[in-house]
Amino acid sequence: MAAPRLNPLSLRISIIAVAMRIPPEPKLSRKRLHRPDFLGRNMMIVVIAATNMSFENRIMNARTINKIEFVCRAARFGFLLALGVLTLTALFTTAAPIKTDEHSNPNAVAADTASLKPPDNGQIPVAFLISDGAVVIDFCGPWEVFQDAMIPGRQDMPFRLYTVAETKKPIRTSGGMQIVPDYTIQNAPPPKVIVIPAQSRPSPAVLEWITKSSKTTDVTMSVCTGAFVLAKTGLLSGKSATTYHGAFVRFAMQFPDVQLKRGARFVENGNLATAGGLSSGIDLALRVVERYYGREVARKTAYNMEYQGEGWMNPDSNQTYATAPVSTPEHPLCTVCGMDVDPATAPKSVFKGATYYFCSDDDKKTFDMAPEKYVSATAGKIQ
Questions:
Q1: Burial of 351 (0-12, 13-18, 19+ CB in 10 A)
Q2: Which CATH architecture has domain 324-383?
Q3: Calculated CA dihedral for residues 105, 108, 114, 118, nearest 10 degrees
Q4: 234/212 Cα distance (integer angstroms)
Q5: According to the CATH classification, is domain 124-321 in 3.40.50.880?
Q6: Three-class SS of residue 296?
Q7: What is the Cα–Cα distance from 143 to 245, expressed in whole angstroms?
Q8: Kind and range of the H or E run holding 376
Q9: What is the pTM (predicted TM-score) of this model?
Q10: Is the pLDDT of residue 34 over 50?
């Protein structure tokens, strides 16, 4: 006996694409590829049913179905099939990979941008330019970072550290620490990295050394008000920079051709970089380590130092200092640096009937030389 023929219309026609998983993306250097959230972590379920007929009541005799009904059902099946194909195409088209930082922080610097090439052999020479009054944390913080950096599989330190001054005369730093410089600006080895902390006013010879040496450095970086020293060379003209928050007004007045970035932990411009005040130098130094050897080496360096700050991964993380505090009669601030002052003991000047307080005699002298400029610069910040 011949096998009974099944009518095609008696079959339930379905297309079901279930749990199609997109293959894992290849591992990229410190980045991930993300797809839109509507894919549900790379999972999607598409169900298209050509008909909702149940199995039990849809075994029909083909003779009872006329040709018109056959054509309608076939058309419906074709339409749903095409719709399913279009849906799948749209999903894959709109799921183009998006590159982001591993912390998905839009402000964070990419780990492999502006990378620096370390030497194939030997160490990276790092010169710390110091003079009387050099602020200890400004240069000792970065010194510790470069000292603690370690490269897997390598026994020696990747950075060679030394101090440079105008002469070999002992330097008296902040807090009274005394340092005998390793080299003078006349015999110092050519550096690939220069660190300029806050310090006394530089001589023309020192500025010339910075300018000449920076022609071949990978990074010339300032920390805190060391930005004033770097700016005096003219290298920052037409570029952006930052400095200690208490020196914003003075810096903007003294270097109007430099775009001051308030609220920046550090600012990079080619081989020039400026950090905010004090501990910001640690973050900029970690950033330099990252540019040479990658994020994981920098992260391990911070871990070994037990340094938990993450500003080195986000140059805009100093937003606390983006807005200047307001001086009031009840809570006066130094007109020059913005620091708290005690009106009972602080130096003061009277200008056009208004009293201005200062946290030091030097700031008072600075104000007295150009009171109009300071009053104009602090307009709206004094009540």
A1: middle
A2: Roll (2.30)
A3: -100
A4: 12
A5: yes
A6: helix
A7: 22
A8: helix 371-377
A9: 0.70
A10: no
